[in-house]
């Protein structure tokens, strides 16, 4: 039996499932545009989806909004303005709310940045991945180095003082010098946040079926170490495995995920997690993935693909999987607050992890050590029943 005495913060995730083309490394729910985007119908569907969840979240405020994909910036500013207006009419959005829009450096999208900013979107996350034209081509990206640089410059010009650049390392045939050059190119553009992550081969992708030749593990490790040093030297704090931010510019939406907060998942294939204090439950839900199936919500059909009430073992593992991604760990009290479970149930595991030198634990904080971050999978195994 859970003991949820208070509800965690609640974020809103909105999924937009279309891209110009599917990248060979991407395992997200995205679909290449073939016959245009049914923009109006999809915005209607998102609004109906939110309305269906209103009884579950009544009275709760929304702490952040994240529009992900796919490529949500393919939608027009007019459509996004309508969506945000309808959301504000139905939800309690905090006055200081962070509203993030994922964007790619395509020329058509860049022309919309000022309009996106004008309607209340106050953070961009731009999918650069590399500034090397050969690597961009190998990754199946449709932009080039010049467009990548221009995208960041236009974000500044549009008034965005808070934006993220996505950057990959460990690319096929990439050298340490090239990885560092990519990073310096990104830093020179003065983003407030950099997501710097290793290319991994995921199931159900073209790269999984036709694997490229990646650098050796020791070379990738050297790339990561040297890039982390450069990021630190330029004032980007390493606050999560792949996330680096200037002071007070951490992504609030992602922090809520990693601190095991609640989030409402809206859109084709979107996942969510909602706590219910009255019923003492924490439930995950997910929506139909294919856009055509999802659009049936406009005809009154359900788009809920499934849901699962989380049990004690689920809660322990999921909480730790998220919290231990954070460099500074989490406040000890958040475990009970966000799972409804007593911290005592993981006392033995915490002690064992501490004995291994993987965690620093006291009454106020649970924090992974440098060694714990290196052996994160082994650390998490302690919390598997």
List the helices and strands and how they pair.
Blueprint: E1 10-16, E2 18-19, E3 31-32, H1 39-57, E4 61-69, H2 77-90, E5 92-103, H3 107-110, H4 113-118, E6 123-129, H5 133-138, H6 145-157, E7 163-169, H7 176-188, E8 193-198, H8 206-209, H9 217-233, E9 237-240, E10 243-245, H10 252-258, E11 262-266, E12 271-276, E13 281-287, H11 291-294, E14 304-309, H12 312-323, E15 330-331, H13 332-339, H14 347-355, E16 359-361, E17 365-368, H15 370-374, H16 376-381
Parallel strand pairs: 1-4, 1-11, 2-3, 4-5, 5-6, 6-7, 7-8
Antiparallel strand pairs: 8-10, 9-10, 12-13, 13-14, 15-17, 16-17
Key features of this structure:
single chain; 385 residues; alpha/beta; TIM Barrel; Arc Repressor Mutant, subunit A; 2 domains; nine-stranded mixed sheet; three-stranded antiparallel sheet; 16 helices
Give a nutshell description of this structure.
With 385 residues, the protein is α/β, with parallel strands linked by helices.
